[in-house]
Amino acid sequence: MSNHTKKSYFARAVYFFLFIILMGLPDVISEFFPAETIHNYDVPLAFFQSILNIAIIYFIFSRYQKQLKSSNPNDYGWHRIEIKKIVLVLITLLFSLAIDKIFINFIDISTPENQELVEEIFNQTPIAAVISSVIFAPVLEELLFRGIFFNYFFNQAKLTHRIGAIILSGALFGFAHETTLSLVFLYYAISGWLLAIIYSYTKDLRYSILLHILMNAVATVTIFISY
Prior knowledge:
This protein is about 80% helix and about 0% strand. It is mostly helical.
């Protein structure tokens, strides 16, 4: 690898890290509301977070589109919607639910801190939490961990690059939700791998976004039922 290529990858890594920080900005808005009574500000919080999320999605999506126009050897982009690919998404969803069942019923893992925090947020500001987790989080995370990541670091039409993109994007997705090497990390990484496989196979981000929305919707319903 030449020095120029190394510098290029380093610059992309820096940009990618900045995108991750940008993605987390809407969560900071809640800090401007009084913590003791934040449940009274659910609707305003949802409104301001939505505005900021839309702006961030627009920015990252424009970067993604610019990437594809500049270099797109794997033919990623918007393609004609196919029923068989939607069916594949639904089958993958069922598989992910089976994985959930295995982790919940057969593997003794404690509730991760990330999940406890999520459940507390749902309890305090349910409207903002549902909008964020079911709509905006799937779109942002797929744009970043699949769309941007694949084209930034694995932009060659090679099988090894596609496999590498799937493995690393899934692992990175796992670390974004759980920073220790544990069964909890593996749980999130598996979700990331499933989403990455869907994107790699369909070459259309809308399918992985759909799968991610469905996954989060099921998780959201489960949280509310558990109350």
